[in-house]
Design brief:
Arc Repressor Mutant, subunit A; 2 domains; transcription; alpha+beta
């Protein structure tokens, strides 16, 4: 898919939508100083090109009973790559895992996970993660306090035309 060149107006549209994805086209057009028709055209182009992947509702984990957040570092056995796809497939099935990253350095994967409590975490590690073939080492860190959380990408760092 060809790369889309973003201008200042596109970046303003994206910035506004990162703050509030439920804006109507009229509201969005007003905020970025466009008339509704060109704004809608640009928005559709951003969606069709994949720059805008999806629209979501962001939930407060603690308010829905997921008060324990952890980051889990996973190391797989180094003998061949036979376990990599199996691990990736397992990660896709585990609802507790909200993000999984293949990493450089001392770990192979970093999982961001949410649980109701420590007992739920323990069951996940003992019954799922450590039972996964090829998992050699697991280290966990629990979030004590959230200092910053955002879903907004740093658009102000981009050089626009």
């Amino acid at each position: 898919m060809p790369s889309l060149t973003l201008d200042k107006t596109d970046l303003r549209i994206l910035s506004e939508l990162q703050l509030n994805g439920r804006l109507t086209n009229v509201e969005l057009a007003e905020r970025v100083a466009l008339s509704p028709s060109p704004c809608l055209r640009r928005l559709k182009q951003l969606e069709e090109s994949g720059v805008i992947r999806q629209y979501v509702a962001l939930l407060d984990p603690a308010k829905i009973g997921l008060g324990l957040q952890a980051y889990v570092r996973v190391v797989l056995e180094k003998r061949g790559n036979t376990h990599v796809q199996s691990f990736i497939d397992a990660v896709q099935r585990w609802p507790e895992v909200i993000n999984c990253f293949a990493m450089t350095g001392e770990m192979d994967y970093l999982l961001q996970v949410y649980f109701e409590d420590l007992e739920h975490f323990s069951r996940f590690v003992m019954d799922e993660l450590l039972q996964q073939q090829g998992v050699e080492d697991v280290k966990s860190s629990f979030v004590l306090k959230e200092i910053k959380r955002t879903t907004s990408l740093p658009l102000s760092q981009l050089r626009s035309l």
